[in-house]
Specification:
141 residues, alpha+beta, 7-stranded antiparallel β-sheet, 3 helices
Length: 141
């Protein structure tokens, strides 16, 4: 059974600045709970098909970029880990009063039966920190 989460944040930065941080894995440890990031591909700007390896404590996550829409959308699949499937999406929209509305969401299917509720709770909290950190980082420039 698939589960999902959705969190939002608002950045005072323009969508282009927010998007620029998303497509550079090297920035992620600066604005998120992630400890380190490596890339199978260009370390400066990632493209569709690139795999990014994130480490947080003892946890390692491999994510493959599956769709990019400049200044609008970033889509990735988590490969492996505790999920049979996991597709994350970060949507960026110009905010009415300026800046960017960030919506970070995912649909996932956990490997372990009955763990979906836990993962929804955990990922909602973790990704809220991600979205808030991204919003602030892009604003600081």
């Amino acid at each position: 059974m698939p589960y999902s989460y959705r969190v939002t944040a608002r950045s005072q930065a323009a969508p282009g600045a927010v998007y620029a941080a998303l497509v550079r894995a090297a920035t992620w440890p600066s604005w998120s709970p992630i400890d380190s990031a490596d890339v199978d591909g260009d370390p400066e700007v990632q493209r569709i098909g690139d795999t990014r390896i994130f480490r947080t404590g003892r946890s390692v996550s491999r994510e493959r970029i599956v769709d990019l829409v400049t200044d609008r959308r970033f889509v990735y699949d988590n490969e492996g880990g505790p999920f049979r499937s996991y597709r994350g999406t970060v949507d960026l929209a110009p905010a009415p009063a300026g800046g960017t509305d960030i919506t970070w969401s995912a649909v996932f299917d956990p490997r372990l039966p009955l763990s979906g509720g836990f993962w929804r709770w955990y990922l909602t909290r973790f990704m809220r920190r991600m979205a808030d950190g991204l919003a602030e980082y892009a604003h600081r420039g």
